[in-house]
Amino acid sequence: MAKEPRSDNDQLSFGTADDIDERAFFAEQSTKPAALQLRHPSDEHYHGHRERLRSRFRDHGDAALADYELLELLLFRLIPRRDTKPIAKALLDRFGSLAAVFGAPTSLLQEVKGIGEAVALDIKLISTVAHRTLKSELRGKQVLSSWSSVIQYCHAAMAHETREQFRILFLDKRNALIADEVQGLGTIDHTPVYPREVVKRALELSATALILVHNHPSGDPTPSRADIDMTKMIIDTAKPLGITVHDHIIIGKDGHASLKGLRLI
């Protein structure tokens, strides 16, 4: 008696376990070439660009790269699957300089297309590490003999703040740094400062000298009449207690002013 031919469904239903595994294996293999074709058409271009930048940095150092290219090198690590050149250029266009990019608050960084919260926080982390590195160069040294390092640190920490910040460097009798503290945050053009609180904190730390520092978010470090009067009040309050105010430095985006250097105190 002749057997009726089995339908495709019958063939599948009576196949052995090995048959099913084999069919599944080849079905899986057949999908892989299609998946490989999903690469973005610019992938090869920007991966080659990345390697060329890395090679230039490795062989010739940072002098061989423009600011936007250095920023690209960093963004390679933070945004591994995108062309980061447009993002690096957009950051510099938005903020004006590398220092301003790293000094910008996370909320403003995220306004640049391609920068999310995680990348903005990573940029601020790198900025913080740089600030701590500069600060570590001051600790244990006579600050007055490392004045350029003081200015460099204060500029990195404060020049691009969007609000006024009043900072005090507390020094011991050898003029070595004991502590660096932000005593007040204000508005875009004013920070309340209380001389008695400044002196009280100096006594708590056994500091014998102070360097006062604040920033002008407008960018112009020229001291105001209020800056001068406030500095003199702190000097007059501290002097009877044996505490010296060495200077009051005002930090702007492109420079600084020293009240002592200007003979205003």
SSE blueprint and pairings:
Blueprint: H1 8-14, H2 17-36, H3 43-60, H4 67-78, H5 85-95, H6 98-103, H7 106-109, H8 117-136, H9 147-158, E1 165-171, E2 177-185, H10 195-204, E3 209-215, H11 225-238, E4 244-251, E5 256-258
Parallel strand pairs: 3-4
Antiparallel strand pairs: 1-2, 1-3, 4-5
Radius of gyration of CA atoms, rounded to a whole number: 31 Å
Helix-strand sequence:
HHHHHHHHHEEHEHEE
Strand content is 5-15%
Instruction: List low-confidence stretches.
Output: 7-39
Q: Overview of this structure, please?
A:
The structure is a single chain. The protein has helices spanning 8-14, 17-36, 43-60, 67-78, 85-95, 98-103, 106-109, 117-136, 147-158, 195-204, 225-238; strands at 165-171, 177-185, 209-215, 244-251, 256-258. The chain is of the alpha+beta class and 265 residues long. It has 2 domains: 44-132, DNA polymerase, domain 1; 141-258, Cytidine Deaminase, domain 2 (3-Layer(aba) Sandwich), CATH 3.40.140. A 5-stranded mixed sheet has the order 2-1-3-4-5, sandwiched between helices. Strand 1 (165-171) and strand 2 (177-185) form a beta hairpin. Helix 8 runs antiparallel to helix 9 and helix 10 crosses helix 11. The longest helix is centred in the N-terminal third of the chain and has 20 residues, at 17-36. The chain is elongated and about 65 Å long. Residues 7-39 have low confidence and may be disordered.
